[in-house]
């Protein structure tokens, strides 16, 4: 009886047909290909979600993420450094983002009572309403796109968390 693998390589004896894709040269992506795939996925998902948030809520993805992080912080207020760290952007980037959110009335800036050097962003009622209005668009689209991971979601998430933790460590 013919085996499926025989049809793939009819001129080779069965012992010359690799049983594992990892044994085929070039079949397993190298670091450059893996990096490119990670960057492409991030870029494509980011652009798609950003576009949906702009169209439906007049809000950028970065603005939404900043509002969400502030909303989830104790007392709905966070330092600029905390927001920058949560979003993975520079302090200048978070300053620009928060300035737009202040101009829209979604956030107010406050000095810390204990340390006047610390500047906090506090959510306003309008900011709370905006993040709640936009949350289903963000979460629904992200969840839809990530369903393509299928049963591999937990494995991918765990692997990316390990890489993220290692990259955060300064050496």
UniProtKB/TrEMBL annotation:
One of its GO terms (biological process) is response to stress. Residues 31-165 form the HTH marR-type domain. Residues 1-29 are annotated as: Disordered. SUPFAM superfamilies: Winged helix' DNA-binding domain. It holds the Pfam family MarR_2. Signal peptide: none annotated. InterPro entries: HTH_MarR-typ, MarR/SlyA-like, WH-like_DNA-bd_sf, WH_DNA-bd_sf. It comes from the Bacteria. GO terms for molecular function: DNA-binding transcription factor activity. This is Transcriptional regulator, MarR family. It comes from Geodermatophilus obscurus (strain ATCC 25078 / DSM 43160 / JCM 3152 / CCUG 61914 / KCC A-0152 / KCTC 9177 / NBRC 13315 / NRRL B-3577 / G-20).
């Amino acid at each position: 009886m013919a085996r499926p693998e025989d049809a793939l390589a009819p001129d080779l004896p069965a012992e010359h047909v690799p049983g594992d894709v990892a044994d085929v040269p070039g079949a397993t992506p190298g670091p450059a290909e893996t990096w490119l795939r990670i960057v492409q996925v991030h870029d494509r998902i980011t652009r798609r979600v950003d576009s949906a948030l702009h169209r439906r809520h007049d809000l950028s993805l970065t603005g939404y993420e900043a509002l969400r992080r502030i909303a989830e912080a104790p007392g709905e207020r966070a330092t600029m450094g905390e927001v920058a760290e949560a979003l993975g952007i520079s302090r200048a980037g978070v300053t620009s983002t928060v300035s737009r959110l202040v101009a829209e009335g979604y956030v107010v800036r406050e000095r810390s009572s204990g340390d006047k050097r610390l500047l906090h962003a506090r959510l306003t009622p309008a900011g709370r309403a905006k993040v709640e209005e936009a949350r289903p668009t963000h979460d629904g689209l992200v969840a839809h796109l990530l369903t393509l991971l299928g049963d591999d979601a937990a494995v991918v998430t765990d692997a990316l968390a390990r890489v993220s933790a290692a990259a955060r460590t300064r050496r």
